[in-house]
Write a structure and sequence with these properties.
This protein is mostly helical and 441 residues long. It is built from 16 helices and no strands.
């Protein structure tokens, strides 16, 4: 038993690093369902089943990750890994969250380049989509019941749902409005107290009489070292590519393009996909519209963030435009470039910001803003559940129900609500059902 800096007020047992690594690897293989489904899986595994962090800690981390560009579920895993084991925990969690999908999608991309779309993959996707509907609905019920504690939160969730479902307001605008509404509600409810942090967070120095100046100097230097390391990890590969293939080569252009995309990925994967695919298909003609659509389907069949489709785009860009290289080598290089420049910034954002977000947990003003964001996210996720559920269960509109998807979704939801079936088996069961259906049809 020990008390870590940045832990909750109660003493909690240390989490063995090996046990955390096993969990992150497991989550990497079962993280289907886009951000909502993946966040639901993370919540179930680290909060409910293991109790490694509290509900309040989880939501605080989620709120911060929602404000960042990049895949929020992967960043949330990175943040939780950092809470448990500092920098090494963040790196392991962030990398293992996407490593299985990187390898799986690389193999699928190669198969697609050689043979085209694979029917069995579409069958597995049908079963997985039905499970995703259940995961999202279960997350809305579970997290909403715990987070909507006041009438104001319910109103914010409802307002967010109306804004995104009926008015089509962009997600970043909803988050900003919810934060401002949370601040306003807190000011009306009570006068905020002076900020007193609950406790020190790892990597953030406390200001005390003895040695305070030295610790503040070290704390100020730490983000600079992190930023310098991140810049080096980005700049060295870029310089190597430029020296090897030339600064006008396609891999260098991809490197710079995907780096820029990583900093504007607000609003979820679909928002950045519209931007990337418009550029890759129309502006640069790197891939065809059919390849872009097939890549999205392949990315849906793999675990990990939906933004993994950028790896497929990078792969097919190299395959279609090898520039004198072996097509497979050019494709693999394109996939690596897209993946590296997409996920390096997302991990760096967490490493830079998490220590400060933790020390600010005692700030009532910030807490009010983040609680407003949490409420709005529930409304947004509810919208996703309805839109995605309708697309899966009613693919032809109200007149045509996909009874296979409906039955799998209901069965998965019932299994998840009982809490007796591990989410891994629910996901695998949905995929197996889809494969069986495709094989016998």
């Amino acid at each position: 038993m020990r008390r870590d800096a940045g832990s909750e007020s109660e003493v909690r047992p240390a989490v063995p690093f090996r046990e955390a690594v096993r969990l992150w690897l497991k989550i990497g293989f079962i993280s289907f369902g886009g951000p909502a489904g993946q966040i639901a899986i993370l919540h179930r595994e680290v909060v409910e089943r293991r109790g490694w962090i509290t509900e309040e800690r989880f939501l605080h981390a989620l709120n911060y990750c929602m404000l960042l560009p990049g895949p929020e579920a992967q960043q949330l895993a990175t943040y939780v890994g950092w809470l448990l084991h500092r920098t090494r925990g963040a790196l392991v969690a962030g990398i293992l969250f996407v490593a299985p999908s990187i390898l799986i999608l690389l193999a699928l991309s190669y198969g697609y380049a050689l043979f085209g779309a694979v029917p069995l993959a579409a069958g597995a996707l049908a079963g997985l989509k039905a499970v995703v509907v259940a995961l999202i609905l279960e997350a809305v019920v579970r997290i909403g019941r715990r987070s909507l504690r006041r009438p104001a939160h319910v109103l914010l969730a409802g307002g967010a749902f109306v804004a995104i479902h009926f008015l089509h307001v962009p997600f970043p605008a909803i988050v900003l409005a919810a934060a401002l509404a949370g601040l306003a509600a807190e000011r009306i409810r009570s006068t905020p107290r002076a900020f007193e942090p609950k406790e020190q967070a790892p990597g953030v120095a406390a200001h005390d009489a003895a040695g305070g100046a030295l610790r503040e100097t070290r704390a100020a230097a730490r983000p600079l070292r992190t930023a310098a390391a991140g810049l080096a990890l980005w700049g060295i590969p870029c310089a190597a590519l430029g020296a090897w293939l030339g600064w006008g080569s396609l891999p260098v252009k991809q490197y710079l393009f995907y780096t820029g995309a990583a900093f504007v990925t607000f609003g979820g994967a679909y928002a950045v996909l519209a931007y990337v695919i418009q550029a890759a298909v129309h502006a640069h003609a790197w891939i065809t519209p059919a390849q872009a659509a097939d890549g999205l389907a392949l990315a849906e069949t793999t675990p990990g963030p939906l933004i993994m489709v950028l790896q497929f785009v990078g792969f097919m860009t190299g395959w279609n435009n090898s520039e004198g290289m072996d097509p497979l080598a050019a494709a693999a290089l394109g996939a690596i470039v897209a993946t590296w420049t997409t996920f390096l910034p997302s991990i760096l954002f967490v490493l830079l910001g998490a220590p400060y977000m933790e020390v600010l947990r005692g700030n009532r003003t910030l807490g009010a803003a983040l609680s407003g964001i949490t409420a709005s996210v529930i409304g947004v996720v509810l919208n996703l559940a309805i839109v995605f559920g309708a697309a899966v269960i009613l693919p032809q509109g109200a007149g045509g129900i996909d009874w296979f998807a409906a039955v799998v979704a209901v069965a998965a939801f019932a299994a998840l609500r009982t809490g007796r079936v591990d989410v891994l088996w629910v996901v695998l069961g949905g995929g197996a059902a889809g494969l069986l259906r495709a094989a016998i049809s």
